[in-house]
From TrEMBL, chain A:
PANTHER family: SULFOPYRUVATE DECARBOXYLASE (PTHR42818:SF1), SULFOPYRUVATE DECARBOXYLASE SUBUNIT ALPHA (PTHR42818). The keyword Lyase applies. InterPro entries: Sulfopyruvate_deCO2ase_alpha (IPR022502), THDP-binding (IPR029061), TPP_dependent_decarboxylase (IPR051818). The keyword Lyase applies. One of its GO terms (molecular function) is sulfopyruvate decarboxylase activity. Keywords: Decarboxylase, Lyase, Pyruvate. This is Sulfopyruvate decarboxylase subunit alpha. The lineage of its organism: Bacteria, Pseudomonadati, Pseudomonadota, Alphaproteobacteria, Rhodobacterales.
TrEMBL record, chain B:
Pfam families: TPP_enzyme_C. CDD domains: TPP_ComE. GO terms for molecular function: carboxy-lyase activity; thiamine pyrophosphate binding. Residues 36-154 form the Thiamine pyrophosphate enzyme TPP-binding domain. GO terms for biological process: small molecule metabolic process. Signal peptide: none annotated. This is Sulfopyruvate decarboxylase subunit beta. NCBIfam families: sulfopy_beta (TIGR03846). Gene3D superfamilies: 3.40.50.970.
Length: 168, 184
């Protein structure tokens, strides 16, 4: 199974047509796939809170948005999630590379990894953790749930899910 | 002129336009001067008016005007390259540049010293950047609406705020009526 393709197929099938991204090595394949699909408008952002602003505008303009980012960005976006996405009740699937988990080679990444789920829980953000490749089968249901609930929803995807870091 | 005087003067131009308005006193002033369903008031999240407006302009064909401030643009400077590289023709970013953080007590921003927002917008890739003085705002805004070429409008004016009530409207109501206006 090509995970990148499966994720983007599910986005398209759920009518997600506006995707903003802040890059991550793990997410490079998904971002490339997003960029190539004619059904999706891809707009890279410089910071994740900026991206959430873009998504809020796109949603109010009638598009279904999504953001692709690293878990370190949870530390950047708490205020935006609380006072924009949640306060105005907007849906936002957040496809997040969960750095600092098993098979992580960079120690500093662990420092935000240990806070990631606690912060999401504190924010009452529904959170799903993809650790095995088969976990991606749930993605379609998570997207449907997000747009039903009108909430931000986090999908944490760790290094094991992506097949490790290769020779990094 | 201070911001509220500019807003009063351009209110007839803003009527029935899709407006995304900056957090704090700017939204309170716009709400008091000319509330309308097509105004999206930011009640929190400093800095994102320009991003929300850009996302909205990219998602649908109507003209979108973001009313932002110099302090908020400085908070979210990454917005300028994103606008510069993706700006649709139906988007106008109007920065009311009074050289101060109005909502927090008029502390000075760097645009009152050496920093030039119009120059930064141009350097970020924005093709149509216009800087005007407060008295010329209405004319420049109308020209930008008519031109439909994606404009960043920097309006230099005096620091100061009008005393207006806090917006008590529920955020979901603000969002819902705004989305209905977008669809109308």
């Amino acid at each position: 199974m090509n995970i990148d393709k499966k994720i983007v197929d599910d986005l398209v099938a759920n009518d997600v047509s506006f995707v903003t991204t802040v890059p991550c090595k793990q997410l490079a394949g998904v971002i490339e796939e997003v960029d190539q699909r004619p059904e999706i408008f891809h707009i890279p952002s410089n910071k994740e809170d900026e991206g959430m602003g873009l998504c809020a505008g796109a949603f109010m303009g009638g598009k279904r948005p999504a953001i692709i980012m690293q878990n370190t960005a949870i530390g950047v976006t708490i205020n935006t999630l609380a006072t924009l996405t949640q306060f105005y009740r907007m849906p936002l699937p957040m496809i997040i590379s969960y750095r600092g988990e098993l098979r992580e080679p960079v120690a500093c990444q662990v420092e935000m990894a240990v806070h990631t789920k606690a912060l999401l829980e504190q924010m009452l953000i529904p959170t799903y953790h993809f650790h095995w490749q088969k976990d991606v089968e749930e993605f379609d249901n998570i997207l449907k749930y997000t747009f039903m609930a009108n909430k931000p929803v986090a999908i944490l995807t760790d290094a094991n899910f992506w097949g490790g870091y290769g020779d990094q | 002129m201070i911001r509220s005087e500019i807003l009063k003067e351009i209110a007839p131009i803003l009527k029935d336009q899709l407006i995304v308005c900056n957090i704090g006193i700017p939204s309170q002033e716009l709400h008091a001067i000319m509330d309308q369903p097509s105004n999206f008031y930011m009640l929190g999240t400093m800095g994102l008016a320009s991003s929300i407006g850009l996302g909205l302009a990219l998602a649908q064909p109507k003209t979108v005007i973001s009313i932002d401030g110099d302090g908020s643009i400085l908070t979210n400077l990454g917005t300028l390259p994103t606008i510069g590289n993706n700006c649709p023709s139906n988007y106008i970013l109007m920065i009311i540049d009074n050289g101060s953080y109005g909502s927090t007590g008029d502390q000075p921003t760097y645009t009152g010293r050496k920093t030039d927002l119009a120059g930064m917008a141009r350097a970020a890739g924005c093709d149509n950047v216009v800087e005007v003085q407060d008295v010329d705002c209405g004319k420049a805004l109308q020209e930008a609406i008519d031109a439909q070429n994606g404009t960043v409008l920097v309006v230099k004016c005096d620091s100061g705020n009008a005393k207006m009530p806090v917006i008590t409207m529920d955020p979901v109501v603000i969002r819902h009526r705004f989305m209905e206006a977008v669809k109308a």
